[in-house]
Hints:
The chain is α/β, with parallel strands linked by helices.
Amino acid sequence: MDLELRHLRCLVAIVENGTFTDAAIELGISQAAVSRNLLSLEKRLGVRLLHRTSRSITPTTAGVQVLARARQVLAEIDELVSEATSGHTRLRVGHAWSAFGQHTTEFQRRWAGAHPEVELQLIRTNTATGGLAEGLCDLAVVRSHLELGRFAHVLLTQEQRYGVLPADDPLIRKRALSLDQLRDRTIVIDRRTGSTTIDLWPEDARPRIEYTNDVDDWLAAISSGRCVGITPQATITQYRRDGVVYRPLRDAPPVDVHLIWHREDPHPATQAAVDLLTKLYQESSSATR
Length: 289
């Protein structure tokens, strides 16, 4: 079955314009070509797609279904073309949870001011590489335990870890927590993108673990009182929620925050992004000294 995009475009144009004549004008082809394309599509599918009378054109039951899928396919094709032709006029930065934490907004503002010719897009995707390995972004910020050897990368900072408690937990009375205070609890961990592992505790004093695959589910498990969590500082900025309280962990190692990108054929704006982010984090570090 050799379906072609021109067949689908003709079907959509006929329905949206209401006549074969207007569809032909929109597509820039002859009315006869519109008719041939529709007949070819119906023949290939083996079903009638349109009810045609002297006054109206309406989709059949099968036509309604095919029309919906045709619109979806054409939209995806248009998006594919747009992405391919936009080239380097857009920089996509992926992240799993918290982007750049408190620096996210300032990064966006400074980028827009310094590089108006390159649109910046932040893309949240729940993958270990922040969408980089999946082709969803050009750069990604990661905090998970990732094998970095296959990517070019730079260490932006190290973030303090925080304990995350339900709002009615007795431990919220403390200004800071220790890992030992959490070992009798159930720790909820994002197995795909989280920075927390069971290795934070010694083998003979490890807490119970519950796994989740999304930040919203992670927060829901904590606010319900069923679990507690551990997270880097950036989460505090991005996810302030009722029913959840953050307290610093005084004895937990910090979390490395890396910016990663493909070694081969990096986006031309990569170094500009690295420079700007490095500057932002250095300014923040200087301000806290």
